[in-house]
Each structure stands twice: as C-alpha cells, then as structure tokens.
Amino acid sequence: MERTPIFEIRLLQEVKDDLDRLPDDVFSDLARVIDSLAYAPRREDAEELGDGFWLLRSPRFTIVYRIDDGRLVVVIVQVSRSGVPGNPAH
Questions:
Q1: In terms of pTM, does the model score above 0.85?
Q2: What is the DSSP code (8-state) at residue 81?
Q3: Looking at the domain assignment, is residue 55 inside a domain?
Q4: What is the rounded CA–CA span in Å between residue 79 and residue 71?
Q5: Of 22, 44, 81, 89, which sees the most CB atoms within 10 A?
Q6: Is residue 73 part of a domain?
Q7: Residue 40, by phi and psi: left (phi above 0), alpha (psi -120 to 50) or beta?
C-alpha cells in the first residue's frame, strides 16, 4: 500500500526565489527532510515548541513547522551560512 503524504506547502514568490538560489545539494537535503516530515511529522529528533509547533535542527538548516488539520505546514526554513558551500559561518 502506497503511503499518502499529509502535507500541502504554499510558498510566497519571495520564498520560492530564495529556495531557487540554494545550492543543489542543500536544496535536495531540505526537500528530503520536508518530504520525510510529510509522512512522519512527530519525529524523535524534533523539539516540541508548544501550540502545535515543532522545531527540527540539522547542521545545514532549521525548520519550524506545525500540524494543522492533519496537514504539515512549514512555517520557517532557515539555512545556516555554514551549510552553504562558499559561505563561512559568522
């Protein structure tokens, strides 16, 4: 039986433009993690922030998301400077 994701993501044009500027490997990692959240949003490595919000950190990015009416809503994606090749951490 094929699993059906429970997420819907709507991005503002500015966010789409920002994501398009990410290096391919960072974008692929981010897409993989968001896809995995669609199937299992309450991950053991995510921190519950309260009011339905969750925080997931990786060395390359931080994602804040929530579950709303059975849908995954990604609220914030922050890519660290050290996670992008050629951009030293400050």
A1: no
A2: G
A3: yes
A4: 23
A5: 22
A6: yes
A7: beta
